[in-house]
Amino acid sequence: MKKLLSIILIAMCSTVLIAQTTPSEVTTDAKITKEYYKYIWGTTSDTLTNADTLSYVFRVRGSQTQDININLYSDYVSGTAGGTLVAYRSPDGVNYATTGDTITVASLTADALDGEQIALSDYNNPYLKLIYLQTGTAVTIPKVYIYSKKN
For residues 144 and 130, is the Cβ–Cβ distance under 8 A? Predict the structure, then answer.
């Protein structure tokens, strides 16, 4: 009987300890805390050729929700390009869903700052992923400008 009680007690203690374990953080490219301004990509190592893809993951931290604004500048090199910048949100850094916001570029033949903007108001997810999907037969260097401020 003592052995059975000991086993039950150990099982209960281990269950409580497992329940107290915090999830591990996903490796990200940058962190957004408080007010933030940065541009991502934009070097020759980020050059996209034809149908190509870039992605960038942010860990969003803070004691308040944040407004996040995202703009796309395309540094044209050659050809005719198009593409889409898509924003995704995640509660755990593993499972992502689209925010429903995109910036689309079509028939690009020169450097251009796109007139569209992704505006995420009261963003309260811990992870934000940006993916740029280039189409066409071109060489470009995308630059994504991100600005956030606390509400």
Answer: yes
- pLDDT tens digit sequence for 84-102: 999 999 999 999 999 998 9
Residue 50 CA: distances (Å) to CA of 38, 90, 110, 111, 141:
26, 29, 15, 16, 12
CA distance 84 to 54: 11
Report all structural domains of the chain as residue ranges with CATH numbers, in order of start. 25-150 (2.60.120.380)
| The pair of three-digit structure tokens given for residue 89, joined into one six-digit string | 């949100």
Can you tell me the distance from the alpha carbon of 104 to that of 111, in angstroms, rounded to the nearest whole number? 15
| Alpha helices per DSSP H over the chain | 2-19
What is the model's pTM? 0.79
Residue type at position 33: T
Q: Is the dihedral of CA 109, 112, 115, 120 positive or negative?
A: positive
8 A C-beta contact, residue 41 and residue 141? yes
Cβ distance 42 to 143 under 8 Å? yes
Query: Rounded to an integer, what distance in angstroms lies between the CA atom of residue 144 and that of residue 29?
Result: 14
Contact 127, 28 (CB under 8 A): yes
